[in-house]
Amino acid sequence: MLIGIVKETFPGEKRVALIPASVAKLTKLGAQVVIEKNLGNSIDASDEEYKKAGAGIEDRKKILSSSDIILRVRKPPLDEIASLKKGAIHISFLDPFNESQLVSELASKNISAISMEMIPRTTLAQKMDALSSQANLAGYVTVILAAERLNKIFPMLMTPAGTITPVRVFIIGVGVAGLQAIATAKRLGARVEAFDTRPVVKEQVQSLGAKFVEIDLGETGQTKDGYAKALSAEQLDKQRQGMAKVCSQSDIVITTAQLFGRKAPIVVTKEMVTQMKSGSIIVDMAVESGGNVEGSKLNEEVMVNGVRIIGLGNLPSRVSNHASQMYSSNLTNFIEAYWDKDKKTFNLNTEDEIIKSCLVTHQGRIVNAQLKK
């Protein structure tokens, strides 16, 4: 079975779908792996390293037209779908809820498309969960970006010249990214507070040494996959009121609130920004899905009343080496889980719960239950 990996075409994307170590694992299973020339340049992995791991080097068109499985980080360009081998399996992030034309095109070309965003958050699928692995790294990057731009140091210092108080960091949204942001800010010596609509995460926040900010929103909760449920307009208003004071006292605010498949909620309003101290930093992690902060702009840093709002997208790509390592591991674990060792092929078991969750198109149809709704 031929597994092909091509270079990413999305502007600024430095991650790759497969690293040499993963190539070695797949070839050991009996798969044949081919990569596009210079695939690993952005992560300092040479073609020679890929060859030593067992990969062949082919041109892009041949990889697309002959591979039984195509692995990518990003969704495929529309104009490349027609080039794919009929009946091929395509595995990548797809953003299927917002890419109806792409999904329809994949179905019409008889491609079995697997969306890595839709891997379920279950114990069995944990090692395949690319959304979490990349969010983990993004949480780290947000703190480093803020620390670089803040005109203060994070830890408390007691010196003969006086005492420097620790920086105050407020994390809004305590999912995978938020927890990593808390841990990173604490390691740098900051005083950290965090808020989430799910009271169940309070213990996790406290276990990392941060303070959990409690705001009475009435009934809230999370989905079966661990995502926060959408709040009502009244609950969002209460949340903003409760957070406004904490934001005004903070040097850094990091927002991570996202709703799977939907536009991100506004949790920091313009009024809240104007109440913050001049020189403060806000990092809007949800900027690619609409943004949590009024005034944030995708791939820009804007100043509002002395407050810098950072809206940089594709944060995991800023640590492309480790991001590729983790994503590559997610893909390899997924393939290994459904690999038939006797036939040396990938078994696309459409009755399997994990595959049912993430398989978007198959045999010319849109098959995913969530998308059908």
In brief:
By secondary structure, the chain is an alpha/beta fold.
**Number of helix segments?**
13
Poorly predicted runs: none
Record the strand order, biggest sheet.
Answer: 3-2-1-4-5-6-18-19
Apparent shape: globular
What is the CATH T-level topology of the largest domain? Answer: Rossmann fold
Query: Which range does the strand content fall in?
Result: 15-25%
Alpha-beta classification: alpha/beta
The radius of gyration over CA amounts to 22 Å
At the fourth CATH level, what is the homologous superfamily of the largest domain?
NAD(P)-binding Rossmann-like Domain
What's the number of domains? 2
The overall strand count is: 19
How much helix is in the residues?
A: 25-40%
CATH architecture identity of the largest domain: 3-Layer(aba) Sandwich
Q: What would CATH call the class of the largest domain?
A: Alpha Beta
Largest beta-sheet characterization: 8 strands, mixed
Q: How would you describe this structure to a colleague?
A:
With 373 residues, the chain is of the alpha/beta class. The chain folds into two domains: 2-128 and 319-364, NAD(P)-binding Rossmann-like Domain (Rossmann fold), CATH 3.40.50.720; 150-313, Rossmann fold. The protein is built from 13 helices and 19 strands. The protein has helices at residues 20-29, 47-52, 60-66, 78-81, 100-108, 130-149, 176-187, 202-207, 233-249, 270-274, 320-337, 353-358, 369-372; strands spanning 2-5, 32-36, 56-58, 69-71, 89-92, 112-115, 157-159, 162-164, 168-172, 191-195, 211-212, 252-255, 281-284, 301-304, 307-310, 339-340, 345-346, 359-362, 365-366. Helix 1 runs parallel beside helix 11 (320-337), helix 6 runs parallel beside helix 7 (176-187) and helix 6 runs antiparallel to helix 11. The relative contact order is 0.14.
